[in-house]
Amino acid sequence: MLIKAKQSWIVPAVAILGLIGYHNERKDKDFLLLQTKDAIALFRVEYLLIGFPFILIECLRSRFPEAGAMIVTSLLLPKLKAIKWKSIAFPLPFLYKGGLEYSRIHNRLLPNNLQAISQEYGRCL
After folding, report:
1. Do the Cβ atoms of 97 and 40 come closer than 8 Å?
2. Which of 18, 26, 62, 116 has the fewest CB atoms in 10 Å of its CB?
3. Alpha carbon distance 71, 52 (integer Å)
4. pLDDT of 109-120, one tens digit each?
């Protein structure tokens, strides 16, 4: 067995959170809504296919409520709106001070270092 979990809710929870994360980060929602007649049905089928291995594992372990929760999540998830995460930007002035100078130094030195490494490698051959 690859996954050993004493709690029966861990595998379904990971699968459901994975589907929710995938649904939130999709970049093709608007395109599919414009190009297909029933994009929600397409999303449902896709999420069921993604969750199928987890659903099958739970059914084989006779954990039908967990499998049902994953099926219900796969069917209802396309109807939910995407959750927008907002983060607070903390001002850290010591990170910005001289930051551009350091990146410029690395940009200028990297080609020289690569050239020196290639010359040393060429001498060894």
Report:
1. no
2. 62
3. 9
4. 556 666 666 666
